[in-house]
Amino acid sequence: MSTSTVKLLPRKGYKRPKVKRLNRSIQGTMVIFFILAILGSFMLLPIVYVIVTAFKPMNEIFIYPPKFWVQNPTIANFITLIEITQETWVPFERSLFNSIFVSVVGTILYIFIASMAAYPLAKKSSKFLRFYDQVLVLAILFRPEVTQTPLYIIMSKMHLINTYSSIMLPILAGSFGVFLMRQFMVTIPDEMLEAARVDGASEYKIFGSLVMPLVKPAWMTLTIFTFNSLWNTGDTQYIYDEGMKTLTSVLQSISSAGIARAGAGAAVALMLMIPPVIVFIISQSSVMETMSHSGLKG
Amino acid sequence: MNHSVTKTDAVTKKGKKKRNWSSKIPTIVFLTPFTILFVCFTILPILAAVGLSFTYFNMLEPPVFVGLDNYIRMFFDDDVFLISLRNTAIFAIITGPISYILSFMVAWLINEFRRSVRTVLTLIFYLPSLAGNVYFVWTYIFSGDSYGFMNSTLMRLGIITDPIMWLTDTKYMMGVVIVVILWLSMGTGFLSFVAGLQSMDRSLYEAAAVDGIKNRFAELYYVTLPQMVPQLLFGAVITISTSFAVGYECMNLTGFPSTDYGTHTLVLHILDFGGVRFEMGYACAIAVFLFTLMLLLWNVINKTLSKWL
Questions:
Q1: Do B123 and A280 touch (CB under 8 A)?
Q2: Do B16 and B94 reside in the same domain of the chain?
Q3: What is the ipTM of this complex?
Q4: Considering A42, A147, B13, B182, which has the largest number of Cβ atoms within 10 A of its Cβ?
């Protein structure tokens, strides 16, 4: 078997046999399952511990020796949490709305903006676009810790402090998503786009009804990343109005009060985990098994 | 739209179409919204930071130009910088390659399963990165008293008699942080690998099987990897940027500053000068140095990956 044979593979007029699972031995599958089980439990156990701790009553958190599982599950931690949020002058619903608004609107906007920019970068060639490509990568590598001060000055000059935009803009202006989309769009064969152009489709039509459906796994993944980073945005220097703060920022300030709040901290973590998990499941299951541009590549 | 145009047709038309592509309007329309945001809120701040690296700037008075003083100070007048550089290098060399290979391996193994199983497995591996600051749970596990999970287990088994100060003893700190970072490492790169494998052209596998690919490793090497180059490069950028940016994890696990600067990294050093001491010029110089380091590595990896595959 040499590489050159494979490169010649998608021959024209070549009938593909219908084979479902190829080159798979049962022993190999067993080994895979074993590896995944070990790695998976390393990943999962701490999370399970967080969930279990969220339901532990105070006396079980301080028990010696510490027990993994909860003996008498209780929702006391969640009740305490809601009581604390009621005491603050900003209603719980307000910060929940802030978080949802910023995460949903920001994610939708970013998917649009990033995909649009990625298309010419992936599929057109000019000196300027190749230069743009390089700049995108460089921007991913630069540290945000030192750009925050200049960013603050720019934002305050534009009167964006204490607005939803100030939470969304640093993420919307990030090159990360554009680079991700670009890398996926590069794999679309040029012949397909040419064929559409020959048929008289405009660039906008090609982008909307050919390119975007083909890279659905990519933008579904980007949805997860963007929603996740917007949702997990805690305290930022751009927001000091309590009424504009996100739920994450409010809840984390409650739970960061040390070990005595271990239960509350776990409850916060658990509650904040739920929306990203829902978004993850929705986007992952809407990526179809047959999303590959099967058959169109030759 | 009719996709059944054969390859030969498309190729002959290609030349003609290329010449007609004089109108750049769609390209401009596609690029404009992002470019405006990118220039205002990403590029300008970066250029400002690079400029500030040649100044003394305490954020109250206007910056004063000092030439290369900040860069000279880094190497000749700041021992903690050298410690943080060493620690960053250790973290990057250990966690970078392991997390990159592990992410790809797990994504590849997961891809063997049906969609529903795959979604569950992907979620399990991605959960630590998805769930914000949930890694604080490791401070309970590695707590330095006998209430800590690790200590109480080891003491019950009779392996140790006194609790180990996992997070403050310089002998163990580094190891614990590395474990936590690896736990957090199945993030962006991993999910983009999963998505990349999902968008693979399945007909290539069928064709490869017909042409005599015997097992899954041969298939991985000859079919999957060459097809995945764009995603592998994306993963490499992400891995470089995260493995050199280790810092906040150390801060939340081992404190700030940590015992004897045992887990002090460049990012924490930037944070120390930029956010605590208000020496913005020096903080920017460290950031520019870190950026240059990552850039050099990226160039090497980019060249190697593109050539090898």
A1: yes
A2: no
A3: 0.84
A4: A147
